[in-house]
Amino acid sequence: MGFRRGFKAEANRIALRIRAQMGLSPVAPIDPEEICARYDIALIRLSDLAPASPLLRTADSCFSAVTVPCGARTAIVHNDAHNLYRQRSNICHELAHCFLGHECVPPLTPAGERARDGTIEAEANHLAGVLLLTDEGAAHVMFRRLLDEAQRIYGISEAMLHYRLRISGAMTRFQRASSW
Question: Which of 8, 42, 118, 171 fits 165 for a cystine, CB–CB 3.0-4.6 Å?
Answer without folding.
Answer: 171
